């Protein structure tokens, strides 16, 4: 690994950990760093997923008070995350790089649009967050299942969709919902990471450098999550996502 690769991975991992703790979307950064270091799309996705997993655990630790206070409410979300993550990772391994690469620009476009239109989506969700109708809650749980599968398969952009569903289910308590979001993201990626490791898709030198830097960023980022406007973070994530989308659409 060259010095340039090391710096790209360390910087991308640290920023990914911070962004994931604030608003989600850090996968854009770690994935981009992996691609810049020469990994193919499947290897970059798998290695990034494994590397980011401990940073999510570090952020869960930083939210430990919320987790302790509401641990019973985490149980159904944990079950959904574990099952969905396993299904998504299984699909990724089954497709292989030849099947996955054509999907990458579309997955990036989807994730980028989620972030770009996060404001209108959140305004749409807010009225539902004060309701408790059975149909609304079932739809929110159904969305969680789909997002969990997507998270095990690719992962970019899942944080915001999970948070939107949780704000419906949890009545608008942001920090409680954010703590659950981080926990679900960790479980999804932890299960997916195990399957991807056994699938032989992970480049360990790249993963270890990113893992350490992302864990530091994830733990440090929680304090900033409580005071940093997510509009700033989201604008950066959207710009990076848009650039990656264009690159993958135009490259052979």
From TrEMBL:
Transmembrane helix as UniProt keyword: yes
GO CC field: plasma membrane
Keywords annotated in UniProt: Cell membrane, Membrane, Transmembrane, Transmembrane helix, Transport
Alphabetized InterPro entries for the sequence: TM_pro_TauE-like (IPR002781), TSUP (IPR052017)
Transmembrane segments: 74-96, 103-121, 141-167, 179-198, 204-225, 232-250
Localisation: Cell membrane
Topology relative to the membrane: Multi-pass membrane protein
Keyword Transmembrane appears in the UniProt entry: yes
Domain of life the protein comes from: Bacteria
Family listed: Belongs to the 4-toluene sulfonate uptake permease (TSUP) (TC 2.A.102) family.
Annotated protein name in UniProt: Probable membrane transporter protein
């Amino acid at each position: 690994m060259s010095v340039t690769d090391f710096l790209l991975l360390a910087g991308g991992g640290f920023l990914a950990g911070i962004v994931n703790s604030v608003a989600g979307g850090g996968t854009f950064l770690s994935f981009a760093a992996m691609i810049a270091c020469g990994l193919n799309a499947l290897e970059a996705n798998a290695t990034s997923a494994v590397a980011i997993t401990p940073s999510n655990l570090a952020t869960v630790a930083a939210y430990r008070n919320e987790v302790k206070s509401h641990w019973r409410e985490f149980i159904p979300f944990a079950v959904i995350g574990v099952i969905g993550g396993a299904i998504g990772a299984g699909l990724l391994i089954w497709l292989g790089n030849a099947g996955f690469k054509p999907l990458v620009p579309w997955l990036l476009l989807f994730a980028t649009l989620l972030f770009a239109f996060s404001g209108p989506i959140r305004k749409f969700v807010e009225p539902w967050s004060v309701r408790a109708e059975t149909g609304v809650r079932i739809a929110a749980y159904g969305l969680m299942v789909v997002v969990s599968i997507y998270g095990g398969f690719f992962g970019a952009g899942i944080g915001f969709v999970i948070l939107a569903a949780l704000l419906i289910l949890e009545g608008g308590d942001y920090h409680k919902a954010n703590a659950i979001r981080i926990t679900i993201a960790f479980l999804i990626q932890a299960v997916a990471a195990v399957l991807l490791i056994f699938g032989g898709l992970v480049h360990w030198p790249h993963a270890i450098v990113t893992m350490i830097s992302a864990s530091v960023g994830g733990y440090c980022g929680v304090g900033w999550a409580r005071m940093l406007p997510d509009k700033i973070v989201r604008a950066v994530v959207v710009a990076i996502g848009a650039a990656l989308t264009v690159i993958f659409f135009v490259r052979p």
